[in-house]
Structures are given as C-alpha cells and as structure tokens.
Amino acid sequence: MATHNAAILVASFRGLQGVTDFHHKLSGKMFNSWRDMPGGGGNVNLRMADFDVIKRSFAFIAIPLLKTISAANAVDSPRSREIMKISFVVPAYNEQALLSRSLTAIRDEIERAGQVLGQDAEIIVVNNASTDRTREVAVAVEGVVVVDEPRKGLVQARWTGFGASTGELIANIDADTVIPPGWLTEVLRQFERGPKLVGLSGPYIYYGVPNRVNVVVGAYYRLAFTMYLFNRFVLNVGSMLQGGNFVVKRDAMLKLGNPDLRFSFYGEDTDMARRLSKVGGVKFTFRLPAESSGRRLVGEGVFTIGIRYSMNFFWATFRKKPFTEEWRDIREEMS
C-alpha cells in the first residue's frame, strides 16, 4: 500500500511537471516573441514578473490539492488487455477549408499508435447542416464515415456522432483541431492506468494567431487549471473539459441520459464535465495538448472570449445553464 501511494504521489508531481513544461513553452519562448514584436506586445502591459507571480500562486494552491488526488484517481498498474477501440467524432458545420487537415492528422495518429482504421479505430464526421462542400471533403478522405445532423448545434452534432459510434472510447475532436503525434498513445495510456477514469481532456495551442495570444491563453489555462483542481477535489462540483479536445468512455455517456440542448455551443464542455464527474473521474492534463484554429480569438478578441468562456464555465458548473445562448459562426474562406 505504501508503495502504491508513493507511486500515485510521484505521478501527481509528474503531472505538475507537465504543467510547468507547458507553461515554459507558452510563457518563456512566446513571452520573448511578444517582447520582440513591434510595439512591445500591443496594448496589454504584461511582464515576465507577472507570469512568475502567477506560477508561484499556482504552485502554492495546486501542490496541496494534487496530494489529494490518490484516493480520487485510484490509479492501478497497467494491466494486460486488448486495445480499447476508439471512435473519433468530428462535428462539422461549413468546415470545407480546415476539415481535411484535421482528418488527415487523425488518420496519421491512428497509424502511429499501431491501430487499424476500421478495426481498432473509426472516424465519424457529423455534417451539421452545412451549406458548403463539407460533406464532399469528408467523403473524399478514405475510411471516414459521414452522418448528417440537420439540427444545427454542437451538442446535437456530438450526440448524433456518439449514436453512430461503436468504440469503447469516444474522442470528440473539432473540425479545426489538429491532434499531434503521441496524442492517441497518451489517451490509451491514461485510460489503461485509470480504470475509474471516464473523461480526459487537454489544452489548446492556437495556430493562425500571434505568439502573444498563446501567452495570454497559457495564463488563462493556469488559472483555469487551479479552479479545476479546487472544484474537482475540494468542492466536488464538477471538472473541466476542453471542447474539441476530449475523450469519454462509452458506458459513462450512456449513463448521462439525454443531452441538455440548452448548451448548443458555449458551456457544453463544462456541462459534460459536470455530468460525467458524477459517474467517474474526469481529468484535465497538460500532457494532452492539441492545436486549434485561433479564428474566434482573432474575430472576437482574446479578452472578450476569455471573459465569455469564464462566465459560461461558472454558469454551467454552479447554475447548470449557459450564460451565453447565442454564438457567431466564424469560418475561413477557401483559397
């Protein structure tokens, strides 16, 4: 038992090291890129000292909380078993410009992980009332299954994809998301080691934006991660998922019942995390990053989106309803 608890504690601190590595990537190299840009980084007066304060505050709060993870996670040693089949569900509304890149990244990662598309893994694109060539783009990718959902809405599309899936694990990947090498291997490792784990997610690193945007996003993730630890292990009121980069277990989804269609866009990931946390463990880890288009950050502003997501996180967690019920579709033009 002592050895088991020691292993859990080591794993917890390795997780914290993963957070630190992620922070260095976003607030070190990218901070220098911000500083070197003309105008000194725009209208926001950020200093490296500010990020050091955030890091120290994060460590002060997070380390004691991480010590409580052992009982909640109940991590077991990896056990010999068959590879869990995974279904990639990709909702797509008018995504003809970016969908192909996302699907290619998924196919490549399935191959890198040693799985066979159509046997150990499947890719399901949900054509969500698209009016462009989204369906044709998806059909053109070998091995992809396309289903149609005429009701426009992210939640509707995700659940339609879930209904068409057959995997033990359901990976919810947005059409503008690109999963990196090692992503699937990490997913399988996490679920193999944690039999009580029902949900897994990681952060976004945005492409198509200045580096300084990812510096701000990195600070936001640090604060959100601290809140996630507090909510999950102290208040026991929910967890955190990054919409478009999360994986859930099929049997846990089946226990949720019908989806709450009030969450058509904003807050849908937080609502999912809150409901799943009543079934089993829902984990957010910096070891599972993915790239995503920064089009919404550019189109509506980093701070506007940050505040909006924060309000919807709190509303979905504590009031069980979305703060924002309408959203703006932002898409790329075909070149």
Q: Could you please describe the fold and organization of this structure?
A:
The protein has helices at about 1-35, 50-65, 70-75, 100-110, 135-140, 155-165, 185-195, 210-235, 250-255, 270-275, 295-300, 300-320, and strands at about 85-90, 120-125, 145-150, 170-175, 175-180, 195-200, 205, 245-250, 280-285, 290-295. The strands form two sheets. It has a seven-stranded mixed sheet, sandwiched between helices. It has a three-stranded mixed sheet with strand order 5-10-7. The protein is built from twelve helices and ten strands. Residues about 1-50 and about 65-80 have low confidence and may be disordered. β2, α5 (about 135-140) and β3 (about 145-150) form a beta-alpha-beta unit. With about 325 residues, it is of the alpha/beta class. Helix content is about 50%, strand content about 15%. The longest helix is centred in the first third of the chain and has 35 residues, at about 1-35. α1 runs antiparallel to α8, α2 runs parallel beside α8 (about 210-235) and α10 packs parallel to α12 (about 300-320). It is globular, with a radius of gyration of 19 Å.
Provide a compact summary of the structure:
49% of the residues lie in helices and 14% in strands. The protein has 335 residues and is an alpha/beta fold.
Q: Radius of gyration, rounded? A: 19 Å
The helix content, as a percent range, equals 40-55%
Order of helices and strands: HHHEHEHEHEEHEEHEHHEEHH
Helix count equals 12
Shape: globular
Question: Taking all residues together, what is the mean pLDDT?
Answer: 80
Number of strands: 10
* N- to C-terminal distance: 60 Å
